[in-house]
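Subject line: Sequence and fold of a protein, written as structure tokens
Enclosed: The protein record, placed directly beneath this head.
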Amino acid sequence: MTARRAGVAGSLLMIVLVAVNLRPAVAAVGPLLTEISDAFDLSGTAAGALTTLPLAFFGSYGLVAAFLPRAPRGETLLVGAMALLVAGLALRLLDGPVTLFAGSLVAGIAISIGNIAMPSIIKRDHPARITTVTAVYTVAVTGGAALSSGVAVPVEHLFGATWRLPLGLLTIPAALAGLLWVPRARRAAHAARSAPPPAAPRGVAALVWRSGPAWHVTVFMGLQSLLAYVVLGWLPTICQARGMAEAPAGYVLSLTAAMQAAGALAVPVIARRTRDQRPLVIATVALTMAGFAGVTWAPIGTVWAWAAVLGFGQGLGFAGALSFIGLRAHDAHVAAQLSGMAQGIGYVIAALGPLALGALHDATGGWNVPMTGVLLVCAAMLIPGTAAGRLRTVGAPATPSLKGINSEISGHTPH
């Protein structure tokens, strides 16, 4: 292996170490949600809020980052994210609903820092491999979700413990990832002191926030994330309502997450065979709608197949949405701003999903109305998705010959 390939492999491994920690804090709660709700006597709406709270803050750092004069380097952000995540996971284990929700809030903020930092790191370090590296990152994210949701209940039963044990064990990989990123963060800080990186051009944030394509990416990110978090928060409960036991219902969620990894790996393959990403969006919508409908209304024996379809479609959507950040951004500075905007606003949109689903279930006493609403969201995702999939770039430097094009990209009509 050449030194260059070894460097790329090492960089990918470091990305994976963080990525596997960016969903278990939420994914592991789903299979245990009924038990946690019973322990604290939570209503359906409150139980939905338990999964919604961290999701509502998944993009919180992105909203703050847009106003920072100089954002910390990505390596520093990732170390801080893992440290904060460990603190949130530990706080959630303390006795009482207040610390349960407070720990979930802290975990959500920690994850938001990792969410926002990673796409700009990928754009900076792997500009020629955006879809491939994003696919690897997405596989690691979904793999962490799959593993944590699949083993949460078995680990609890194996040790004869309560829900606190599987959730507490999540602190170990988060702490390990943070410690392993410390040397790289120190080297980056030393390099920045020796040769400070160029500052972002003035007006980048304003340009991105006024850009039509940036808003298309943002809304698509939000809607596909909303659907993903409906799955994370409620899929095991829906399966249990259809007659499945707690452990198999958790395995259904694990299967869905595992198939998201397969869908993510398909994204660079599809990207090489299509002119733009619009066919990817269409496939995402079709598969996701079919999967949700099958899991909810098809015969219970076919739930596993429909869960696989659902997971594959959502894997396409998640990796596609993250790839749009790098593909639509002109450079790493624009990618950082677009990442903050797309995930900051997008995850606020996404957080409405589990909460609204829980409220609709409480109001109607069943899953038909809530899941019909989910299908409508799937269909609506097609509009911003096909617009985001067009070959346009946010933040390209304006030239006289390209004035009209760049004005359109930044959301303005040339005069």
User: Anything to note?
Assistant: Residues 208 and 214 are 6 Å apart (CA to CA). The radius of gyration is 21 Å.
